[in-house]
Amino acid sequence: MNNCEKAKHISKCLQLAILLEVSSQKPGNVSFAASFEKTRVEHFLASSVAASSSFQEAAYLGTAVAEKRLDVGKVGLGELIKDCAVDVNAWQKGGNTILGTVMLFFPIAVGAGMTPAKKGYVFDFKKLRQNIDLVVKSSSAWDSVHLYEAVGIANPSGLGDAPDLDVTDPASKERLLKENVGLFEVFKLASAYDDICYEWVNNYPITFDSAYPYLMAQLESKPLNTAVVHAFLKILSERPDTFIARKVGKEKAQEVSNEAKKILELGGLETAKGKKCLKEFDKKLRSKGNSCNPGTTADLTAAALALSTLSGYRP
Description:
The chain is mainly alpha-helical. It has one domain (about 5-310): Triphosphoribosyl-dephospho-CoA protein (Orthogonal Bundle), CATH 1.10.4200. It has 15 helices and two strands. The protein has helices at about 5-25, 40-65, 75-90, 100-115, 125-135, 140-155, 170-180, 185-190, 195-200, 205-220, 225-240, 240-250, 250-265, 270-290, 295-310, and strands at about 115-120, 120-125. Strands 1-2 form a two-stranded antiparallel sheet. The longest helix is centred in the N-terminal third of the chain and has 26 residues, at about 40-65. The protein is globular. The mean pLDDT is about 95.
């Protein structure tokens, strides 16, 4: 296998993960069965296509690091995310669709490029995880600036007010460079109130230790949609969604998590009671302008699917 083939393979895995995530009917989220006012499933499909070239570039840069042709600190995570945000914005008109997902995916893409793959592109996940940790810890102040610019391009809702280096404050980018604040340090500041940042600075514990094993166990005996929805509920039951918490408060986010746990205990999509409660739950999450959309949980579900496709899962 050459580096170009490896990078293409990794990109396809990540693109497929996005498609599988949005295709599943997760409560409170966009799917083929439900839309938001301005964001529909086709916007996510287009975003997946738009992101693929950036994923491939990230993976290829990872192979260059593995061969010592590139220093890991020169990968440019922030610029990769920014370029991806520009492409996604150009290919669809539904607003922010996958910024959180790609923020989780790019360290995985670079790390996978750095990781030796056996025949059939089977990755050593222990080594992959080590490489992801190395990539995020090697980020620079310029990565921080480019990430802030990516957020400005994607314009996500529910940012809230950060206690320091607020992404919406124009002065923050100047401070990042002046104080030499790398992206890992920025995410460390935000990790208390954003689980995507929490994953970065703690080496993806939700994705690797909880969501991925649970999802793979579900996929062994259940249809794809059921497995993904159950994995989504599992993550949500254990981690109050930080996107909801920033928009409507931690107490409401905890209530949502408690309901997700109850639905799983009732059997989820495999029982009549579970299905009924899930339908009511979905309706409740969509009320008041989708204020309780578990968007971060959807991003974490996509990350678990990314590991699944990288490990060889195919629908």
